[in-house]
Amino acid sequence: MRSNLIFDLDNTLLDFSASERIGLTKTFADFGVTDNAQVRATYEKVNTGLWAQLERGEITREQLLGKRFNTFLAAINRSDLPGAKMEHEYRGLLNSGHQRVPGAKTLLTTLRQNGFTILAGTNGNTATQRQRLHDSHLAPLFDGIYISEELGYDKPATQFFDAIFAHEHELHKDDTLMIGDGLNSDIRGGVNYGLHTVWVNLHDQINTTSLQPTLEVHSLQELANKLLASA
Questions:
Q1: Cα distance between residue 19 and residue 63, in whole Å
Q2: Backbone angles phi and psi of 32, in degrees to 5
Q3: Residue 222: how many CA atoms within 13 Å on its side-chain side?
Q4: 66, exposed or middle or buried, with CB in 10 Å at 0-12, 13-18, 19+?
Q5: Which of 2, 7, 72, 86 would you label with 63, given CA atoms 20 to 30 Å apart?
Q6: What's the CA angle centered on 142, arms 114 and 23, to 5 degrees?
């Protein structure tokens, strides 16, 4: 039985997409940015590209946060606006966003009751992630919480997992699952580290990569059923 579980947070247990939508709505309104589908798509392209660079080790987290809104504003021809101030407001709004993916609390509670060790292993900003875990009431359900900013490495880097295994001495690769929605972060990181992996594909995405997760699920209830069946 694989009794040790490392969970990603964003869009696996916490609805980060909802927090993003709400945060962008207010930030755009406060700074006079036209809010429509094209502008949102431009932001998403810029943001996704920067996070991909971070995951490849091409930029630092500080560089990402420092250039995200300035790059976006340049792309929509609004470089007259204060990118740094927009980033600051947006980060504050993300900190307060704590919507759970439906069934997340029930899933973690059930797994704990059945003897699983539950860890959080997430990329992100420490203040944001810890505040969201606290406000969502999920924090007490984890046996350990590991955030890339604190560890000094982002998934999929092997050093991210080295840091977790160094703190959690009972973990072994053959009884630990990496569970998450990100193919290029969670699944790639787990596969590269020699872990079995579960791709939480809540939106029925197509896997266009060469990565082959050990298991693919489409809801947290399906995930619970699969894990409990193997216990």
A1: 22
A2: 75, 30
A3: 12
A4: middle
A5: 7
A6: 130
Cβ neighbours around 220 below 10 Å, total: 21
pLDDT in tens, the chain (231 residues): 569 999 999 999 999 888 889 999 999 999 999 999 999 999 999 999 998 898 888 999 899 999 999 999 999 999 999 999 999 999 888 888 889 999 999 999 999 999 999 999 999 889 889 999 999 999 999 999 999 999 999 999 999 999 999 999 999 999 999 999 999 999 999 999 999 999 999 999 999 999 999 999 999 999 999 999 987
Q: State how far the Cα of 12 lies from the Cα of 29, in Å rounded to an integer.
A: 28
Strands (E), the chain: 4-7, 117-122, 144-147, 176-180, 196-200, 215-217
- Distance, in Å, from the CA atom of 139 to the CA atom of 174, rounded to the nearest integer, reads 26
Task: List active site positions.
Answer: 8
Copy the structure tokens of residue 14.
């916490």
Give how far Cα 106 sits from Cα of 5, 69, 112, 113, Å: 15, 36, 10, 11
